[in-house]
């Protein structure tokens, strides 16, 4: 559905995209995962025809983003990172506006937004600027869907959103996918990668990896131990002890588990447990664990 | 070392604290204590009343009723003194982008009344620790986000406040930077600075000594992450958060 080849874009001296190549299949949820400055927004703006690339190409459903920009605009729904609806129009007026701009009506495609818009319909006469964060998000999604796009492009829809609303939002995306809409979504939350069919890990304008979340996790080949400190007030001390341990490569906190990797494959749970015990850390659980997206991301970051 | 000792005098004392805007009750009878050197996590859905509570505790907003004491100062009549004794950093605003690193330091030091001698000493020490010595005359606007955040945090604790408030401090940075940032937070806590932090990253909630969860203007849970996970039978703080939100419905 989306094809991108060797795409480059610079802002003056600053290279935002350094040759991006990726394909998004029809009907999948594809995630662009990376921190601020990775190039996620630039890539999306080129796809929605708001920016011109310096080099390379991008097509959506076979249409070129530069030559066929008018046609592409009718096929793509875009939700920018910053709330961009008309704050001085009401909820219903915003929706009406976006439907008619594309030459349609709200009624014609209401089935697409029923589940989402239904939740904010009781506030249909409220000004968009007076909505809460979660409601604004639902209205913005409704407005980007009302012309029945084939592709939905969402720029960090869950940034700054609490864990519960984030979960609800991903459920909405899943429902849309079942209606046949292809979704390209960006996020700085690594855990959301697991909710996508495939993801590209982005850093400084380059792709670190593209695959399914499961295969990306499996690409982490080294042994990793997870250390859990029972008395949490000793965790900081334990992290520092592990950093000082011989043969240790990396030590990172992941919630209540400390992830540790080694230069030597023969260091195991028993050696680590004995080392910590010797340093006065008796209440620790050490076991071998498998890596997650963040582990892989950090490993790839350091390699590049 | 046990950082949460209830025998110690709290650094933040909140009792039946209420804030109303007209008929809207933003904060409804909040009661909690925060102890010196503790990392205290303050979580909740958007619109739960966190920001209003933080603004009161920072001395920016007068409470409607209830008791509030921060670093020994009263939340009604000594708000200027509270401001002097705390540090604050938010994701949205912390540094002046069109000033250099050193100019930002001078500005912050000046605002908090730090003498020239102390400022010069601490500046070198801080820039060395952050490995920014070479960049001291560079504009802050041109720095990578991760550096800005570490610098902003170091400036927020430059005057060695009793409490520092961090409002979603780690948004948008890469996972490596996010962790080195938490190393700085832990270090500050071990130097005795109390950390009051809000975040939407649930793994970061695990790094807190205690966590308060707000919902619809009330504190609905307050305990150590381990105790909360046991109580709500969840294996992560994410699970706790989701269960609390569901119970509410």
Written account of the structure:
The complex is a heterodimer of chains A (304) and B (249). By secondary structure, chain A is an alpha/beta fold. Chain A folds into two domains: 2-217, Rossmann fold, CATH 3.40.50.300; 220-303, 2-Layer Sandwich (Alpha-Beta Plaits). Chain A is 33% helix and 28% strand. Chain A has ten helices and 14 strands. A six-stranded mixed beta sheet of chain A has the order 6-7-8-3-9-10, sandwiched between helices. Chain B has 249 residues and is α/β, with parallel strands linked by helices. Chain B has a domain at 12-94 and 162-248: P-loop containing nucleotide triphosphate hydrolases (Rossmann fold). Chain B is built from nine helices and ten strands. Chain B has helices at 50-57, 79-84, 101-111, 116-129, 145-156, 175-190, 202-205, 225-231, 237-248; strands at 12-21, 24-34, 39-44, 65-70, 73-74, 86-90, 163-167, 194-198, 210-215, 218-223. The longest helix of chain B has 16 residues, at 175-190. Chain A binds chain B through residues 34-37, 132-134, 159-167, 188-190, 203, 232-233, 235-236, 239, 252-256, 294, 297-298, 301-302, and chain B through 1-4, 44-48, 144-145, 168, 171-177, 179, 182, 186, 189-190, 200-203, 205-207, 209, 224-226, 236-238, 241-242, 245.
How are the SSEs ordered, and which strands pair?
The complex is a heterodimer of chains A (304) and B (249).
Chain A lengths: L1 E10 L2 E11 L4 E5 L6 H8 L7 E6 L2 E2 L4 H7 E4 L11 H11 L8 H8 L15 H13 L5 E4 L8 H16 L3 E6 L10 E6 L2 E6 L1 H6 L5 E6 L5 H10 L3 E7 L2 E6 L6 H10 L5 E5 L4 H11 L1
Parallel strand pairs in A: 3-8, 3-9, 6-7, 7-8
Antiparallel strand pairs in A: 1-2, 1-4, 4-5, 9-10, 11-13, 11-14, 12-13
Helix pairs in contact in A: 3-5, 4-5
Chain B lengths: L11 E10 L2 E11 L4 E6 L5 H8 L7 E6 L2 E2 L4 H6 L1 E5 L10 H11 L4 H14 L15 H12 L6 E5 L7 H16 L3 E5 L3 H4 L4 E6 L2 E6 L1 H7 L5 H12 L1
Parallel strand pairs in B: 3-8, 3-9, 6-7, 7-8
Antiparallel strand pairs in B: 1-2, 1-4, 4-5, 9-10
Helix pairs in contact in B: 5-6
């Amino acid at each position: 559905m989306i094809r991108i080849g060797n795409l480059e874009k610079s802002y003056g001296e600053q290279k935002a995209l350094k040759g991006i190549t990726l394909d998004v299949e029809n009907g999948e949820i594809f995630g662009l995962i990376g921190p601020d400055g990775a190039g996620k927004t630039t890539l999306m703006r080129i796809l929605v025809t708001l920016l011109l690339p310096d080099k390379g190409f991008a097509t959506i459903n076979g249409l070129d983003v530069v030559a066929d920009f008018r046609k592409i605009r009718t096929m793509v729904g875009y939700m920018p990172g910053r709330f961009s609806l008309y704050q001085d129009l009401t909820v219903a007026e915003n929706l009406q506006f976006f439907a008619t701009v594309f030459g349609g009506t709200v009624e014609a495609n209401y089935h697409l937004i029923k589940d989402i818009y239904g939740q904010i319909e009781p506030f249909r006469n409220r000004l968009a600027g007076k909505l809460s964060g979660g409601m604004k998000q639902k209205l913005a999604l409704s407005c980007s869907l009302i012309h029945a796009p084939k592709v939905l492009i969402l720029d960090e829809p869950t940034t700054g959103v609490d864990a519960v609303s984030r979960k609800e939002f991903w459920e909405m995306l899943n429902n849309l996918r079942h209606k046949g809409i292809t979704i390209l979504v960006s996020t700085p939350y690594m855990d959301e990668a697991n909710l996508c069919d495939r993801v590209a890990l982005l850093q400084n304008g380059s792709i670190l990896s593209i695959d399914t979340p499961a295969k990306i996790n499996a690409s982490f080949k080294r042994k990793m131990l997870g250390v859990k400190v029972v008395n949490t007030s000793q965790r900081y001390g334990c992290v520092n002890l592990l950093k000082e341990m011989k043969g240790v490569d990396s030590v990172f906190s992941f919630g209540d588990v400390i992830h540790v990797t080694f230069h030597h494959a023969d260091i195991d749970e028993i050696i680590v447990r004995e080392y910590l015990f010797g340093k006065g850390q008796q209440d620790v659980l050490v076991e071998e664990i498998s890596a997650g997206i963040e582990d892989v991301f950090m490993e790839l970051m350091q390699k590049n | 070392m046990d950082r949460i000792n209830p025998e110690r005098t709290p650094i933040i004392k909140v009792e039946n604290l209420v804030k109303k805007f007209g008929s809207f009750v933003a904060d409804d009878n909040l009661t909690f204590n925060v102890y010196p050197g503790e990392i205290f996590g303050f979580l909740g859905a958007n619109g739960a009343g966190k920001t209003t509570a933080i603004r009161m505790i920072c001395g920016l907003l007068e409470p409607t009723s209830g008791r509030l004491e921060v670093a020994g100062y009263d939340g009604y009549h000594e708000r200027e003194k509270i401001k002097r004794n705390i540090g604050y950093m938010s994701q949205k605003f912390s540094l002046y982008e069109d000033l250099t690193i050193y100019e930002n330091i001078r500005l912050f030091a000046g605002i908090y009344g730090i003498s020239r001698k102390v400022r010069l000493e601490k500046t070198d020490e801080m820039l060395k620790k952050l490995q920014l010595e070479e960049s001291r005359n560079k504009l802050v606007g041109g720095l990578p986000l991760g550096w800005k955040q570490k610098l902003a945090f170091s400036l927020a604790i430059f005057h060695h406040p009793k409490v520092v408030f961090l409002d979603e401090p780690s948004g948008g940075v890469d996972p490596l930077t996010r962790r080195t940032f938490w190393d700085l937070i832990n270090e500050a806590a071990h130097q005795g600075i109390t950390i009051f932090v809000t975040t939407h990253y649930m793994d970061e909630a695990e790094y807190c000594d205690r966590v308060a969860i707000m919902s619809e203007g009330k504190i609905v849970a307050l305990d150590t992450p381990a105790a909360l996970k046991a109580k709500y039978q969840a294996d992560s703080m994410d699970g706790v958060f989701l269960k609390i939100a569901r119970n509410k419905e």
